[in-house]
Structures are given as structure tokens and as C-alpha cells.
Design brief:
The protein is α+β, with helices and mostly antiparallel strands. It has seven helices and three strands.
């Protein structure tokens, strides 16, 4: 009986020590982000919108910077189905987003916004949809609207908006750990 009690106490100690800070704070872990990342890559827009909003709500993530501490934020995704990783940098100053920079970078290190051939093809397919145009517009929208869920989707770059929202959440979570 005494040995069972000792094992029980020992297992409770180990399990309490193995909890991550995210579990204590009800923050998403890497698996949560990977699942949402795949949802964005492989789902229709209405599904993505619902899952993105549910994700932010489940983990009580802010869509605004009003209650976030001042500082520099950085978030990145795993590589997507097309071998791109999504990156965001921004500052929070006095409860406001500023200096927002978003891009998608190929596994070889090349940036979508700097890829002239890719941008040309995107604009041929849907005029005004190239990353060198749309990412700048999304960055400005975040700074003007101060709300990640009030962004206006840009035709031909809607999924880039969702990816931006995903990596912004990652930046917020990583900054609060």
C-alpha cells in the first residue's frame, strides 16, 4: 500500500513538472498551429474562416494589440504544401500594431515578394494579386484597422491573409511564453 502511494505521488510530481507553460496558460502548442496551418492549406475559405476564428477564441488570442505588451514580435509557420514558410514581424507600441512586415519564403530562401517571375505570373492570372503588391496592402491594413480580423481579402491573395493571421497568432503566443 505504501509503495502504491509513493508511486502515485511520484507520478503526480513528474506530470506537474512536465507541463509546459502553454498548458498552464491555455495557449496553443506547436501541434495546434500545425493543424490550423494544414487547414489553411487544404480547406475552402468558409472552413478556414470558421476554424481561424474558433482557434483565436479557444485560446483567447487577441485580434487587436490593445492589451499586448510593447515589444518586437516575430512569428513563422512550418513549410506549406508549396515549400513556403510564412513570416511576420511587427511591433506593438502603446497598444497598436506598427512596422508590420509579412512575407513567404521558399525553402531555398527566396522571398515571394522579391520573386519577379512569380509576381508577374500572379498578376497575369489575377491582376493586382502578386505578393509584391498584396503583402504591402495587408501590412498597411493591419496598421490602419488595428484588428487582424477586419482585413479585407484581396482577390487572388485570400489565403495569404489567413496565413498572415496564423503567423500573427504565433508571434503573439511566442512573445507571451
Amino acid at each position: 500500500m505504501k509503495s502504491i502511494l509513493v508511486l502515485l505521488v511520484f507520478s503526480l510530481i513528474i506530470s506537474s513538472c512536465s507541463k509546459s507553460p502553454k498548458q498552464d496558460k491555455n495557449l496553443p502548442d506547436e501541434d495546434d498551429f500545425k493543424i490550423l496551418h494544414l487547414d489553411i492549406e487544404r480547406s475552402k475559405t468558409d472552413t478556414v474562416i470558421a476554424r481561424m476564428q474558433a482557434f483565436y477564441k479557444k485560446f483567447d488570442l487577441p485580434a487587436t494589440a490593445a492589451k499586448l505588451p510593447d515589444g518586437h514580435y516575430f512569428g513563422e509557420s512550418p513549410y506549406d504544401d508549396f515549400q513556403y514558410r510564412h513570416l511576420i514581424r511587427f511591433d506593438i507600441e502603446d497598444g497598436r500594431f506598427s512596422n508590420v512586415q509579412y512575407d513567404e519564403v521558399k525553402i531555398n530562401g527566396s522571398s515571394k515578394t522579391a520573386d519577379e517571375e512569380y509576381c508577374r505570373k500572379m498578376n497575369e492570372h489575377v491582376p493586382g494579386s502578386a505578393p509584391d503588391i498584396t503583402y504591402d496592402k495587408y501590412e498597411k491594413q493591419v496598421e490602419q484597422k488595428q484588428n487582424l480580423f477586419e482585413l479585407d481579402a484581396i482577390s487572388g491573395a485570400t489565403y495569404s491573409m489567413y496565413r498572415l493571421q496564423l503567423v500573427a497568432a504565433k508571434a503573439i503566443v511566442d512573445h507571451t511564453e
